[in-house]
Amino acid sequence: GEKDELKPLSTLAVHDGVEVTCITVLGDEIITGDAEGKVYKTRVTAQHELTGVKLLMDHKGKQINDVTRSGQLVLFGLLNQVAAYDMKEDKQLPSIMTRTDIKSVSVDPTGVYLVTVGANKNVSLYQIQVSDGAFLHKKITVASQSLTSIVDVCRISWSPSGERFALPNTNLDPNAKTIG
């Protein structure tokens, strides 16, 4: 017999032909970032219709490389910073400034720690929280911060407990060490 073709229920077309570089889903909202530095929020109805498109941030040509979320907080990795947006208060928060292009960001399952990987292959760990509308962060020193074997396209994975995180690398040793 014939194979059924998968067809999209809806098509997200808010980025006007610009490459979408990251996406996350928050309940009935889709958050997307693009190669020109724009971040949009789009609501999805029960009938799979896309409505309520809103530009959340515009970083003027600085590509949004990755997105992660923790509760009301959505964090984006881009050139020399981790940008923060408070979904509950519907406002952009001050960024964490860095010395490199942030390629990957991830918050642990408890929502307490943020780990980033830069283009320079440095791994950074932060303790984070939102308190009285302010985004608070403190960098934590980890034993081995620069990992030359990290692959260029990198997504961070946390263990379910949040005690460890893993980074894809070119090390073929099955006993590769973890940080965290």
Written account of the structure:
The chain has 180 residues and is mainly β. Helix content is 0%, strand content 51%. The chain has no helices and twelve strands. The strands form three sheets. The chain has a six-stranded antiparallel β-sheet, with no helix packed on it. The radius of gyration is 17 Å and the shape is globular. The mean pLDDT is 85.
Summarize the structure.
0% of the residues lie in helices and 51% in strands. It is mainly beta and 180 residues long. A six-stranded antiparallel sheet has the order 5-6-7-8-9-10, with no helix packed on it. It has a four-stranded antiparallel sheet with strand order 1-2-3-4, with no helix packed on it. A two-stranded antiparallel ribbon has the order 11-12.
Order of helices and strands: EEEEEEEEEEEE
Number of helices: 0
Work out the number of β strands.
12
The side-by-side strand order for the widest beta sheet comes to 5-6-7-8-9-10
Strand content: over 45%
State the major sheet: 6 strands, antiparallel
Rg, Cα atoms, Å: 17 Å
Q: Which runs of at least 5 residues are low in confidence (pLDDT < 50)?
A: none
Mean pLDDT across every amino acid position? 85
Q: In which range does the helix fraction lie?
A: under 10%
Shape label: globular
Oligomer: single chain
Alpha-beta classification: mainly beta
Amino- and carboxy-terminal Cα gap? 51 Å
